[in-house]
């Protein structure tokens, strides 16, 4: 049987290079293309050499559409605008679009929903098994503990991260809100500064730290009167996300179009 042909978007980026590595070490998939934004200094370079796995004979292009027509899936950890533009090409090509990009707002998500009528979109703020398991545990803890237990989500990432709260923090906040049976949008407190007044019961708070080379750390704190439960995850290597993304692409191959999550891929939706 022939391999699943995968493209990597943003192939010169931190995650792009990890994705090329993950593809090169996975049976049943092959790198059929790699691209960067027009003007990128990476254009023309070999994607395998950039990723440190040796030459793969795939030069970095700036023409995603010509790659999509020859591919079965695209792995995309770029920027919200790049992801939305790519979703239209993925829909035209009816291929699998695995989206790790974070910082998407409601208008971006609406466009991804439209693309998912034709493409298999698998999107998650975190593609690791550990974080998706953590989300299931947070949902259960939030359901078991009453609203007098305050929920706060703390995250730390490297100094180059551009969005806050992280996609993972929001995913964990959503899990807590689901457990509580409330809407995160209506109960999130995404930052605090100055004379904020006392904490409002039932809200879910977020705090973001940035510094150094931290790959990604998340703690969900459930604070009761006189005791605290802390559930957390520490990412030590970007390969956990890259391997998850490759797994998602394989899972999505020949599936019916739709907007899926990593919990669907991992069979964690009912947990
Ligand atoms: N869901 C998950 O499991 C994870 C998600 N992420 C998310 O992935 C995203 C990328 O993170 P990271 O790899 O650290 O970021 P980087 O900035 O290192 O990589 C992004 C790459 O995308 C490129 N790019 C920008 N615009 C385009 C475009 N129009 N077409 C093609 N390529 C483009 C950038 O190029 P240039 O620098 O030249 O602009 C860069 O090379 C972030 O949103 C991050 O939060 C990260 C890790 C895990
Ligand atoms: O930008 C990153 O690096 C990461 N982004 C994702 C997020 O926003 O949660 C996932 C991971 O934590 C690393």
Structure description:
The chain starts with a strand and ends in a 5-residue tail after the last helix. The chain is built from ten helices and twelve strands. The mean pLDDT is 97. Helices cover 36% and strands 24% of the residues. The strands form two sheets. The protein has a seven-stranded parallel sheet with strand order 3-2-1-4-5-6-12, with helices on both faces. With 271 residues, the protein is of the alpha/beta class. It binds NADPH dihydro-nicotinamide-adenine-dinucleotide phosphate (NDP) and ligand LZUJQKHR.
How would you sum up the global shape? elongated
Radius of gyration of CA atoms, rounded to a whole number: 19 Å
The ligands bound in this entry are: NADPH dihydro-nicotinamide-adenine-dinucleotide phosphate, the ligand O=C(O)C1=N[C@H](C(=O)O)C[C@H](O)C1
Number of DSSP-assigned strands: 12
Task: Please count the helical segments.
Answer: 10
Biggest beta-sheet profile: 7 strands, parallel
Features:
binds the ligand O=C(O)C1=N[C@H](C(=O)O)C[C@H](O)C1, five-stranded mixed sheet, alpha/beta, 36% helix, binds NADPH dihydro-nicotinamide-adenine-dinucleotide phosphate, 271 residues, seven-stranded parallel sheet
Set down the secondary structure blueprint.
Elements lengths: L3 E6 L4 H11 L4 E7 L11 H5 L8 E2 L2 H5 L4 E4 L3 H14 L2 E4 L6 H10 L4 E4 L5 H16 L5 E8 L9 H14 L3 H4 E2 L14 E7 L5 E9 L2 E9 L3 H14 L5 E3 L1 H5 L5
Parallel strand pairs: 1-2, 1-4, 2-3, 4-5, 5-6, 6-12, 7-9, 8-9
Antiparallel strand pairs: 7-10, 10-11
GO molecular function, one term: oxidoreductase activity, acting on CH or CH2 groups, NAD or NADP as acceptor
GO cellular component, one term: cytosol
Subcellular location: Cytoplasm
């Amino acid at each position: 049987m022939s391999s699943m042909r995968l493209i990597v978007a943003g192939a010169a980026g931190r995650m792009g290079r990890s994705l090329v590595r993950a593809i090169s070490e996975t049976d049943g998939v092959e790198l059929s293309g790699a691209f960067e934004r027009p003007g990128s200094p990476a254009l023309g370079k070999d994607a395998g050499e950039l990723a440190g796995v040796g030459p793969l004979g795939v030069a970095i292009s700036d023409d995603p559409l010509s790659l999509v027509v020859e591919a079965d899936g695209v792995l995309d950890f770029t920027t919200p605008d790049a992801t939305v533009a790519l979703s239209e090409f993925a829909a035209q090509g009816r291929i699998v679009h695995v989206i790790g990009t974070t910082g998407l707002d409601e208008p971006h998500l609406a466009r991804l929903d439209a693309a998912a009528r034709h493409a298999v979109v698998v999107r998650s703020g975190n593609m690791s098994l550990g974080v998706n398991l953590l989300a299931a545990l947070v949902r259960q803890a939030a359901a078991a503990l009453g609203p007098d237990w305050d929920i706060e989500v703390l995250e730390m990432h490297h100094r180059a991260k551009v969005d806050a709260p992280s996609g993972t923090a929001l995913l964990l906040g959503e899990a807590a809100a689901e457990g509580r049976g409330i809407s995160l949008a209506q109960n999130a407190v995404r930052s605090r500064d100055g004379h904020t007044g006392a904490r409002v019961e039932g809200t879910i708070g977020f705090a973001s730290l940035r510094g150094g080379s931290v790959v990604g750390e998340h703690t969900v704190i459930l604070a009761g009167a006189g005791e605290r439960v802390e559930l957390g995850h520490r990412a030590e290597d970007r390969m956990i996300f890259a391997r998850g993304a490759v797994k998602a692409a394989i899972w999505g191959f020949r599936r019916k179009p739709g907007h899926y999550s990593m919990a669907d891929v991992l069979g964690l939706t009912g947990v």
